[in-house]
């Protein structure tokens, strides 16, 4: 049995060293989200049963810790857009399987040089650290990524990294051998070295790369919902179990296969039914991002007495010029999609509230 050790550090060398020590001692790692206030971080640590907290001052013992199974190595918070995140438990077997599958697909080895710049409290960032440790690759860590620090890492020989789309748009991707991109709004027109990943915290991150499952990963569609069967599937939650039947994880995502490639439409709850017609937010967002006056956008449905729901676009205008008009947004969408997909309401924002992995935090959007 192992203790849960919370690591209250940013993405840095000290974090990696702490993880390695904890695993060497046979304990379980809980990375804490540095974006949260300290009180909130401590609440998460207590809720998941932490025995010790490691921060920049050292180690602090906490009362009321719980024991975890002997093979457990990681508890990591899910990154849902609403609600309280679940504590997802990964074992040594699932973490090892994840590194093996990604290593096989990307032909990774000890000669690679990974840059870890995403928050390590999320599976996308932690996966980079775990992968580098598993392959013996060199690892560079930076706590807050920006175009200058990422360029400096590339100049220092970094070859592989994982980013969110918002950061990808600010760097020169050609300086990298491979860039993994997940989260939200992965651009369709991207260089061949930029790999779009799909997966969940429950699957130890991406298990579908560029619409094709990794080795030993199975994907099926049941009633429009994506189901995954993978050796990287978590052992469970700290309190509860994911929805699994016969080894298949019910993701809650809706998708289709097109010529053998998986196309993810979005979360089932995100589907907009307007006047009896179905509208998925992602295609509308893709069109609106190409609008010359739009810097960022989130599309969701809002209640409407006549239509049931209507399409609403939360827009961050580009630059200091006049913001786009609702009419111009509707015209742009009509030119590529159905009329019902054109937004009927617009809300202007200074910034879209997003998680560390780029997912919109819908609960924090202002009322339309």
Instruction: Report the helical percentage.
Output: 10-25%
CATH class category name of the largest domain: Alpha Beta
**What best-fitting shape do the alpha-carbon axes yield?**
globular
What are the low-pLDDT stretches, counting only 5+ consecutive residues below 50?
none
Mean pLDDT: 91
In percent terms, what proportion of residues is strand? Answer: 25-35%
Classify the secondary structure makeup into a structural class. alpha/beta
Question: What would your notes on this structure say?
Answer:
The chain is α/β, with parallel strands linked by helices and 368 residues long. The chain folds into two domains: 263 residues, ANL, N-terminal domain (Rossmann fold, 3-Layer(aba) Sandwich), CATH 3.40.50.12780; 94 residues, GMP Synthetase, Chain A, domain 3 (2-Layer Sandwich). Helix content is 22%, strand content 34%. It is built from eight helices and 25 strands. The strands form six sheets. Strands 9-8-10-11-12-13-14 form a seven-stranded mixed beta sheet, with helices on both faces. Strands 1, 2, 3, 4 and 5 form a five-stranded mixed beta sheet that branches. Helix 3 crosses helix 4. The longest helix is centred in the N-terminal third of the chain and has 15 residues. The termini are far apart. The mean pLDDT is 91.
